[in-house]
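In the design runs reported in the main text, the only information available to the sequence generator was the tokenized backbone. The following block is the verbatim input for one such run; it is reproduced so that readers can re-run the procedure and compare outputs position by position.
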């Protein structure tokens, strides 16, 4: 039997790694500019974490989690999203006792969701996310929004805007739930079976349903912004002001509620206009009750997550290619068996000097070594062997200009390093 990768997964091949590394470097640099430090949490957690944190009315918990019993009969779940694990780590390691705010990001975080694989949607994908704990005001909301916009812009994506909404808090949301249920009751038979179940448990989730019949009903629902308490209304106004002063294109969209139960107040999506229409690249929001729900102190928080594969897909759609770098800067060719040890020595010395160098491992002919160096894109080639070697010299060739020069073996590392760095 020919073994293949599981459905909904994808290999990152060596030829594509530069693209991932470029995206990751951009994410790290922008997160660092905003004072965020990296956190890495386990790939799997106890299932209870996601049932309590993500919410048992969400599609993730009801349909999409990879859950199993380990050898100790404990229920374990592969991570379906990044925030709950970050909150668990915050509580377990008492990071909340450190000076606030606590600002963290995760990178290349593997996320597992059992859903039908589609273009741009995989059962295993990777997320970048940022979480800010301890800030009650809208400045943290604005900070994470501005940071993800900077990341996407630095990568070359354009025509970006932000859709924002407020879904209230435990003080004002019950009154909206009451008004929303009254509206949904009039159209109950038109709801999909899942939204009929949501009617009592979490009617807000009906607004997030992808079924056309439910979307039509939701479109006529009461506007949640009309039900906000004074604190939520002030917070939402403050966020708009902070985004306006940075001239961020924003749209208020009362239909945005996000798919996770833990959100409060701010929810947002980063939108990109493309020839294929309006596309949501990432989303996030505020989750002021989640830390307490999972067992920590009462602490406000805000964050977002974005899929790396999703970014790569849009970069490819727009023909955006990062600056490429040759696999190696110097390839050392061996001319005859007597050149093999000097070539090896020079290669290792160049690496010690911080120069990316490689040499022939395959006992190729000199002509084949030239072809291989050309495939690697090496801008320089050194030939070890022949008459030059007898005279204590290496031959250095500029692969672009074709210029050749001899370099004394004792000076080779310093001379080659200088030439490569000047290039």
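Verbatim output:
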């Amino acid at each position: 039997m020919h073994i293949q990768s599981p459905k909904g997964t994808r290999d990152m091949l060596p030829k594509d790694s530069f693209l991932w590394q470029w995206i990751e470097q951009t994410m790290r640099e922008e997160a660092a500019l905003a004072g965020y430090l990296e956190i890495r949490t386990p790939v799997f957690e106890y299932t209870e974490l996601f049932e309590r944190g993500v919410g048992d009315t969400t599609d993730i918990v009801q349909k999409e989690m990879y859950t199993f019993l380990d050898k100790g009969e404990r229920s374990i779940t592969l991570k379906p999203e990044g925030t709950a694990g970050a909150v668990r780590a915050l509580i377990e390691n008492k990071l909340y006792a450190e000076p606030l705010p606590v600002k963290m990001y995760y990178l290349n975080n593997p996320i597992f969701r059992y859903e039908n694989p589609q273009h741009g949607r995989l059962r295993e994908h990777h997320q970048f996310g940022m979480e800010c704990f301890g800030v009650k005001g809208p400045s943290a909301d604005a900070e994470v929004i501005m940071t993800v916009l900077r990341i996407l812009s630095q990568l070359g994506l354009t025509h970006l805007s932000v859709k924002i909404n407020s879904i209230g808090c435990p003080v004002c949301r019950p009154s909206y739930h009451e008004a929303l249920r009254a509206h949904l009751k009039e159209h109950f038979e038109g709801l999909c079976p899942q939204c009929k179940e949501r009617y009592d448990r979490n009617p807000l989730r009906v607004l997030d349903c992808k079924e056309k019949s439910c979307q039509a009903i939701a479109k006529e629902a009461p506007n949640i912004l009309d039900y906000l308490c004074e604190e939520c209304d002030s917070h939402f106004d403050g966020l708009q002001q902070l985004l306006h002063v940075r001239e961020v294109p924003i749209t208020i969209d009362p239909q945005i509620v996000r798919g996770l139960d833990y959100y409060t107040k701010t929810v947002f999506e980063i939108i990109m206009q493309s020839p294929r229409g309006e596309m949501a690249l990432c989303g996030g929001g505020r989750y002021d009750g989640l830390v307490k729900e999972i067992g920590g102190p009462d602490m406000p928080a805000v964050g977002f997550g974005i899929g790396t594969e999703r970014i790569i897909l849009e970069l490819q759609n727009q023909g955006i290619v990062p600056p490429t770098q040759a696999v190696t800067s110097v390839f050392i060719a061996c001319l005859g068996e007597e050149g093999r040890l000097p070539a090896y020595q020079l290669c290792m010395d160049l690496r010690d000097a911080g120069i990316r160098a490689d040499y022939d491992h395959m006992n190729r002919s000199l002509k084949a070594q030239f072809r291989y160096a050309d495939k690697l894109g090496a801008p320089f080639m050194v030939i070890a062997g022949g008459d030059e070697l007898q005279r204590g010299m290496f031959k250095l060739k500029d692969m672009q200009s074709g210029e050749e020069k001899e370099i004394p073996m004792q000076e080779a590392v310093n001379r080659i390093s200088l030439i490569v760095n000047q290039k």
